[in-house]
Amino acid sequence: MAKKRELVERLGAVPLFSRCSRRELQIVARHTEIADVPQSAVLVTEGEKGDAFFVVLAGRARVSRGGRAKGTLEAGGYFGELALLDPAPRSATVKAETDVQVGVLGARMFRILLRELPAISERLLAGLARELREASGR
Questions:
Q1: CATH number at residue 79
Q2: DSSP annotation string for 92-120
Q3: Reported pTM
Q4: Tens of pLDDT along the chain (138 residues)?
Q5: Smallest Cα–Cα separation from 81: which of 9, 5, 13?
Q6: 110 is in which domain, residue-wise?
Q7: Rounded CA gap, 34 and 5, in Å?
Q8: Number of structural domains in the chain
């Protein structure tokens, strides 16, 4: 139960979900699986079809692109939000440096949530627009 509360907090900090109400975040969290990933396991592989969003709850993972390290993700870090909207190939590989616990929201479940909660779509689009605006200003 505590992990789901933490997941709600982590989701609220992700720009895509930042405009959602607490109730909506709780619903998204209920439909998000919590997975324990052992050290050295690959969470996603560059070039493979994206089909899920991940938020790191504990541990540390390394992000690499073209075999080169690009950074690390720790608690609160996230990746794959665009895979919820478009199944394009992953742009990076993410590998667990330590044991990692992640929340995983699959694209299929995300589409179900959008159908069942149509009001959330507008807030997600607003969050996405904000993220794009910030990214273009960098």
A1: 2.60.120.10
A2: SEEEESS-EEEEEEEHHHHHHHHHH-HHH
A3: 0.91
A4: 458 889 999 999 998 888 899 999 999 999 999 999 999 999 999 999 999 999 999 999 999 999 999 999 999 999 998 898 888 999 999 999 999 999 999 999 999 998 888 888 888 888 888 878 887 775
A5: 13
A6: 2-136
A7: 12
A8: 1
